[in-house]
Request: fold
Amino acid sequence: MAELENDLFLRALMREPVSRTPMWIMRQAGRYLPEYRATRAEAGDFMSLCRNPELACEVTMQPLRRYALDAAILFSDILTVPDAMGLGLYFVTGEGPKFERPVRTADAIRSLEVPDVEKELGYVFEAVRTIRRELDGKVPLIGFAGSPFTCGTYMVEGGSSREFPTIKGLAKEAPEVLDQLMDTVAETTTEYLNAQIDAGAQAVQIFDTWGAALEPDDFRRFSLASMQKIVDKLTREKDGRRVPVILFTKGAGPLLADLAETGCDALGVDWTTDLADARKYVGDKVALQGNLDPATLRESPEAIREGVARTLASYGKGPGHVFNLGHGITPDIDPDNVSVLVDAVHELSPQYHSK
Ligand code: CP3
Reply:
């Protein structure tokens, strides 16, 4: 396998000196790109796209052809894991993900098993190998999974939810049952991420979109503890290089301090916390990734540049920053505005680095 031509992203995650701030964009492959919509139409539907390694590779590469990004992210979805556990994932246009067989009762949770990851999710590992070949060492490839709690919300509620009534009910009325669900998903996710790393993922991110919807003590018991179990068992070195782990709990705020204790390498930060405050919460334990509000991309080029300037200034000088949005890019964004964003990070960030 060729040496990496651009390893800024991996170096920033290790808090090593870099010449400018590296960047990627959460959901960088997606519906805001017309070429993505064309490939998805070719595949037929979203899950067929995920299950086809050649097409998953194609959409992974699309944003890199347009923009000077410093990392690729595997094209897949966090809900492939519960799907592999037998819940039957499907997507209804306009309504988001749904499960044919949600797990709502203690009995259903007790009978869940860790699936044969190679057999059920082999298409993901094949996509990772295909993407690595296509990248040919240009930039690193990020693998990912959902946090057990975030996957759990979809598994228990049966789809997207605003209030999380069923899983919050379990947290209060049957916490041991929810512990068990978290354990089974954590074990599956550990095997899943290690297999992605085996196949060639050079960093991994755990998306904890909904953990911070819990009260802090419940966040620690269910979401943080289950991510901790994963971090403890991940492969951390491959081909002589560290495989960094990024935890992204949306809305974590002061809980970033707890997340920094897990032994992860970096934390994702959303736009509701200033990076300057985030740095105070975590000290020099971990790198930080974020955190421009994705809504900024709807504004003028000047406003986008100002947003980038503010984000870089908020982190301040020194290593350990990976530029990103504070959450995924939305389908309504003009792809030209993303060029403005990328150019601004390239132009404005070198002054924050001494190397
Ligand atoms: O970042 C990337 O480019 C990698 C691909 C990626 C997708 N989903 C592709 C996708 C990643 C990392 C995800 C993560 C994911 N999936 C999360 C966590 C991150 C977050 O954004 O909070 C969650 C909660 C999901 C579950 C999920 N998948 C939802 C709620 C939806 C529907 C969203 C919608 O707007 O309809 C999906 C579908 C999905 N996953 C799409 C994409 C590009 C859109 C599908 C389509 O083409 O119609």
In short: The mean pLDDT is 97. Residues 175-199 form the longest helix (25 residues). The CA atoms of residues 288 and 321 lie 5 Å apart. DSSP finds 15 helices and eleven strands in the chain.
